[in-house]
Amino acid sequence: MTGILFSSWGGLVVDNRGKSEDQWQGVPNLSLPEEFDKEKKIRAFVGWDGIAIRDPQVNIVDLIRAYMEAVQKESCGKCTPCRVGTRILSSILNRISDGEGRTEDLGQLRGLAEVISKSSKCNLGQTGPRPLLHALEHFQSQFLEAIHSKRKIPREEYKMKVTVPCESACPSHLPVHRYIELIKEGRFLESLAAIREATCLPGVLGRVCIRPCEDNCRRQNVDECLSIKWLKRFVADYEIEKRRTPSIKKEAPKSEKVAIIGAGPAGLSCAYYLALKGYSVTIFERLGEPGGMAAVGIPDYRLPREILRREVKIIEDLGVEIKYHTQVGKDITLSQIFEQGYKALFIAVGAQTNTPMGVEGEDKGYKGFIPGVFYLLEINLGRDPYPEGEKVVVVGGGNVAIDCVRSSFRIGKRDVNLVYRRTKKEMPADRVEIHDAEEEGVKFHYLCNPVRIIAKDNKVVGVECIRMELGEPDESGRRRPVPLKGSEFFIETDILIPAIGQAIDLSFLEEKDGIKTTRRSTIAVDEKTFMTSRPGVFSAGDCVTGPDVLVRAAGHGKRAAEKIDLFLRGLEVKESEEERLEALMEKIKVYNKEEKIGLPGGQKRATLPMLPPETRKWTFDEVESGFTIPVAQKEAERCLRCVRVGLFAV
Amino acid sequence: MLKLTIDGKEIEARENQTILEVAKENGIYIPSLCYHPKLSLIKSCRVCLVDVEGYEMPVASCATPVLEGMIIHTKTERVEKMRHEALKLLLVNHPLDCPICDAGGECMLQNRVYDFGIERNEYPPEPVEKPSAEYGTPLIRKWPDRCVMCLRCVHACIDVPGADVLEVAEHGFTSFIQAARKENCISCGECLHVCPVGALTENLSKIKGRIWQLERVQTTCTFCGCGCQLELNTLRKQRVVKVTTKGETGVNQGSLCVRGRFGYDFIHHPERLQKPLVKKSGLFVETTWEEALDLIATRLKEIKEKYGPQSIGGISSARATNEENYLFQKWMRACIGTNHIDNGVRLSSGPAFYGMMEGLGIGAMTHSFEEVKEADLLLVIGTDVYDDHLIFSNQMRKAIRFNGARVISIDPRRTQWEKWADLWLRPAPGTDLFLINGLIRLLIKEGVVLKEYIESRTEGFEELRASVERFTPETIQETTGIPPEDLQRLVRLYRSARRRAIIFGSGLIQHHNGEEMVRALCNLALLTGEDEEGGGGLYPMLAQSNAQGALDMGALSEFLPGRIRVDDPRGRRLFEGAWEREISPKPGLTYLELFDQLPEGKIKALYVFGEDPFITLPNLERLRIGLNRLEFLVVQDLFMTHIGNYAHVILPGTSFAEKNGTFTSMERRVQRVRQAIFPVGESKPEWEVFCELSGRMGYPMSYRSPSDIMEEISSLVPFYSNMNYSRLEQGGIQWPLTRGRRKRFIPAEPKKPMETPNEEYPLWIIPRGFHYHYGVGTTTKRAMGLGKVFQETRIEIHPEDASKAQLLEGEPVRVISPRGEVETVCHISEDLPKGVAYFATSFFPVFVNNLLTSAYDSRFPIPVYKAFIGRIEKH
Question: Would you give the DSSP letter of residue A251?
Answer without folding.
Answer: P
